[in-house]
Amino acid sequence: MSRRVTIDPVTRIEGHLRVDVEVDGDKVKKAWASGQMWRGAENILIGRDPRDAWAITQRICGVCTTVHALASVRSVENALQLELPVNAQYIRNVIILAHAVHDHIVHFYHLLALDWVDVTSALKADPAKAASLAESLSSWSGNSKAEFSKVKERLSGFVGTGPLGIFTNGYWGHPAMKLPPEISPIAVTHYLQALEVQRHANKVVSILGGKTPHIENVVVGSVANALAVHSQAVLTVERLLAVKDWIDRLADFVKNVYLIDVAVVGGSYPEWTQIGRGIVDYISVPDIPVDGRNTEFALAGGHIAGADLASFKQIKMHDDAYFKDGVSESVKHSWYEGGKGPLHPYKRETRPQYTDFKDDGKYSWLKSPAFYDKPMQVGPLPRALAVVAAGHKPTIEHATQKDQELPVRRADHLERCTAQREGRAWRR
Amino acid sequence: MRVVLLGVGNILLSDEGLGVRAVERLPLAFSLPPEVAVIDGGPCGMELLEDLEGIDALIMVDAIRSGEPAGTPIRLTGEALPVFFRTRLSPHQVGLSDVLASLELLGKSPRHISILGLQPESLALGMDLSRAVEDRMPTLIGMVVSELALLGLAAPRTGRRGG
C-alpha cells in the first residue's frame, strides 16, 4: 500500500514550493515538486522600456533582488552588445559577491542551522568547555568563555517565551538532533554573531548600490556611482575605506567561523550526505567579469556530466555556442499553453493555463529547463565544482583540506561536496 | 524618537504591493517629521534588520488577508501581531517575522509595532492596484497619519496632490 505525503509549503525558501511524495513502505516511488506561485515577470516587461527592466525585475523576489537586477540588465546589454567600463563591472562584482556572502551567512545560520542545532541543549552545556573547544578550532575573537556565558544567559530568558519566538517551533530534544552538546552553544553563539556580521555585507550593497533593499545604481551599460573626494552624497574615499573594512570583517568571519561551523555541523551528520541523491549533472555559467566585454571571468563555469569531474566542459562566455544552443524549457508539466515541445528560451512562450494539480499532467508554475534534453543541477555546488575542475588553486586547496588535529570529526570537504561522493553513494 | 514607516509587499502582484504604494504616496501629500524614516521594503527580509534595530516604533503597511471585503482597512497591534505572522495573513514567505524575532533575540526590538493595511482584492500579475483597493488608499494613508499622531508626531498636509 502506498501513501501520499504532501509538504506545502516547503519552508526556508522564497516562493512557495509544494512537494508531494508517494511512499511505499520506506521507499519513495514517485515525487512531484510544484512551484505554487505564478510570477511571469517576462509578461510584465512586454511593452516597457528595456532601460527600466532591471528595476522591475528585481522586485520578483525577497531574497535575491540584487541578482535579478543584475541578470536583467546584463541581458539587455547582451542584446545590445554593449561594452561596459571595467570599473562598472568591478562595482557590480563587489555588490554581487557581498550579496552572495550575505546569502550564505543568513541561509546557513538563520534559516537552516536550527534544524541541526538543539538550542535547548545549548542551555545545559558548560560555557568553559565550549570555549576551550571553540578556541582549539579557530582564533575568532568571539569564542571566549565570557561570550558563551553571556549568550547562555540571554537564551535562558528567551527560549519558548518570545511572542514571535523564532525558537518556539523547534524540534528540541528530537533524537535526530545529534550534534554533540558541547558544540551547540558554539553554534548558537555564532548564530547571534552572524546576525551582527551579516549587516556588513548589507552595508556594502547599500553603499555601492545606493540603497537596500532594491539597489538603485544600475543603468544599462554601466553603473551610476558618482565618485568624489569631498561630497558625502557620493562615493568618497572614506566610504570606500569603510566598504573595505566591512569586506575584511566578513572575510574574517567566513574564514574563522562560518567555514569551520559548516564543516563541524556537517561532520556530525555524515549520514545525510547519503540521503536524497539529486541530479548529478551540473551546470554553471562563468561570473564575476573582469573586462568590459564579458570575455574574462574570475569564477569559471561549465558542464559536468554524471558526477564525473573529468567530464568537465568549460563554458567560457555567456555567448558560448555550446551553452547557448543547449538550453531549452518544457511546459509539459507546467501551467502554460504549450504543444510545440521544449523551446529555446529565446523562443519560449508564457501563456498561463491553470489546470489544478494533475499528477500525470500539469502541476506546477515552474517550467522545466534542460541542457541538451537533460535536467541539470545549478547553484553553489555546480559552481564550486566547476571552479575546482577549472583548476582554481585556492578553491581546490580548501575543498581538499583535511585537518586531523581537530578534536571533533570534521567533514572532509571534498568528500562531502564532490560529485564522486554522490555517485558512489548512489551505486552502493 | 525614531520611527520607521515600512511598506512591504510585491509590487508586481497588484494589491500585494499596496503597502509599498502607500509609503511612496504618503510623503507627497503629507510632510513627515524628521523622526520618521520611510522604507520601501518590497518583499525583503533580513536586509531590513539594521534599519529596524533599536527603533522606538515600527509602523508596517501591508496587504492583510482577513476575509473581509476587498479594501477593508485593518489595523493590527499587540496580541494580534503574533497571530498575523503565525497564520501568514500576509502572503510573504521568508521575512519580516524572522527579522522581528531576530531583533527580539538581540534585545533590539521596536518598542511599539503596528501593522496597517487593506484587504487585497487581486494578487494577479500586474503593477496596478485593483479598483477596490485604489479607492481606499487615501483611507489607508490617513490611518498612517493617525498612527503617527498616536505616537505624538504631527504630519501636516503639504497641499500637494497625492494621498
Give a written overview of the molecule.
The complex is a heterodimer of chains A (428) and B (163). Chain A has 14 helices and twelve strands. Chain A has 428 residues and is of the alpha+beta class. Chain A folds into four domains: 1-37; 42-82, no CATH class; 83-268, Cytochrome-c3 Hydrogenase, chain B; 278-428, no CATH class. In chain A, a hairpin with an 8-residue loop joins strand 9 (301-304) and strand 10 (313-315). The longest helix of chain A has 32 residues, at 237-268. Chain A is globular, with a radius of gyration of 23 Å. Chain B is 33% helix and 20% strand. Chain B has five helices and five strands. In chain B, helix 1 links the parallel strand 1 (3-8) and strand 2 (36-42). In chain B, helix 1 (18-29) crosses helix 5. The interface between A and B is large, with 42 and 33 residues.
Keywords:
heterodimer; A: 428 residues; alpha+beta; Cytochrome-c3 Hydrogenase, chain B; three-stranded antiparallel beta sheet; 42% helix; disordered C terminus; B: 163 residues; Rossmann fold
The count of helical stretches of chain B stands at 5
Total beta-strand segments of chain B: 5
Rg over alpha carbons of chain A = 23 Å
Low-confidence stretches of chain B: 89-93
Whole-number total of structural domains of chain A: 4
Number of domains of chain B: 1
Do you know the CATH architecture of chain B?
A: 3-Layer(aba) Sandwich
Note the topology.
The complex is a heterodimer of chains A (428) and B (163).
Chain A lengths: L1 E9 L6 E8 L2 E9 L5 H5 L7 H5 L7 H16 L5 H27 L6 H6 L2 H11 L7 H12 L27 H26 L8 E2 L2 E2 L13 H32 L13 E3 L2 E3 L7 E3 L1 E4 L8 E3 L5 H6 E4 L37 E4 L8 H10 L3 H8 L12 H5 L1 H9 L1
Antiparallel strand pairs in A: 1-2, 2-3, 4-5, 6-9, 7-8, 9-10, 11-12
Helix pairs in contact in A: 4-8, 4-9, 6-7, 7-8, 8-9
Chain B lengths: L2 E6 L9 H12 L6 E7 L6 H4 L4 E7 L9 E5 L2 H7 L9 H10 L6 E7 L12 H20 L13
Parallel strand pairs in B: 1-2, 1-3, 3-5
Antiparallel strand pairs in B: 4-5
